[in-house]
Amino acid sequence: MASVVLAACAGNGSTNPGPLANAPKVIMDSDFNTMGDDGQLFAMTTQLMAQGKVNLLGLTVVTGNDWLLQEQADALKAVERMGVQNVVGVYAGANYPLQYDVASIRAQQAANPNGYFGAWSRPEPTQASQLIAPPDGFATSTKLQAQNASDFMIDTIKRYPNQVTIIEVGPPTNLATALRKAPEIAPLIKQIVYMGGAMAVPGNANAVGELNWWFDPLATRTVLQTTIPQSVIPLDVTNTVPLTESVYNQIANNPSKQNAVTKAYATTNANAFATNTHIYDTLTIAYFLDPTYATQTKSAYLDIDTTSGEDQGHVMVYPGQPAAGASPQKITYVTQFDNNRFFNLYIDLLTRPVPVTMP
């Protein structure tokens, strides 16, 4: 199957000439899905690329929402769907967290039957025949880049010192791995914008942990402890940005704007608004474009519980002085968003024509 075959080379955003040369450079590090929040974010980002507003240098994938093999297939189809397969490369990263205890994870699942545990909730696929095709089928020609995600991050950050933002919307295992391999890249990263963590609200995995940071708390702690400028979109704000039936219909059921993205969106998110679904990863790109999308923020020194058990993924927030092991600087996290303004952007970008045309 094309979706799991390695390729030695394919286009990627790092070589984009013309208008994109001066556009803000990003790497999207994602536990990818077809048209859930990660897939939506990718579609939005490539539309922004077509407008010359963002230069997406690459899409790196990591186990989180699903297992790596499935995410690779979904990501390869996504670049093909958007028509950017010769511009944005897909790089496979970590299949497992830096540190995990399967027995503890199973105990947490039993104790939190309504928790969201991503990949751990389903069997790990080991071959292409076990993968689930996106609604519009697997990629037909697009192949994975041969380079590992963490090595791609290292090389790209060194190629563009102080220019690359990491849009971190999965467990940060790939980024932590890159920092462990090449700690010298830390001062060269412009910033990190996460979707992750739960500061003063309950978790969505166990009672205290949000999935992305719960999934690999050691990786999260590794990155928090650096001096890289960091901003966080936590559950505290995503819980206040619901996917409504009106928003869904403006994307899925607008007869004049039907395309491959809106059709995949309709299939993936059908009735999501009836199950209290909220908007997650897509807030990151709005905040990256313009931090004034956030109408309320707080800042604090942050740390995270890396122990296995019911406290796994619990974020410790220190508004005044940091405790030992916390981030060495205050980190901004968002608590309120301009929902109306965001949804205007969200609906617009998800209903634009595809495939996109690069500037």
From TrEMBL:
<dbReference type="GO" id="GO:0008477">
    <property type="term" value="F:purine nucleosidase activity"/>
</dbReference>
<dbReference type="InterPro" id="IPR023186">
    <property type="entry name" value="IUNH"/>
</dbReference>
<keyword id="KW-0378">Hydrolase</keyword>
<keyword id="KW-0326">Glycosidase</keyword>
<dbReference type="InterPro" id="IPR036452">
    <property type="entry name" value="Ribo_hydro-like"/>
</dbReference>
<feature type="domain" description="Inosine/uridine-preferring nucleoside hydrolase">
    <location>
        <begin position="26"/>
        <end position="344"/>
    </location>
</feature>
<protein>
    <submittedName>
        <fullName>Nucleoside hydrolase</fullName>
    </submittedName>
</protein>
<dbReference type="GO" id="GO:0005829">
    <property type="term" value="C:cytosol"/>
</dbReference>
<dbReference type="GO" id="GO:0006152">
    <property type="term" value="P:purine nucleoside catabolic process"/>
</dbReference>
<dbReference type="InterPro" id="IPR001910">
    <property type="entry name" value="Inosine/uridine_hydrolase_dom"/>
</dbReference>
<dbReference type="Pfam" id="PF01156">
    <property type="entry name" value="IU_nuc_hydro"/>
</dbReference>
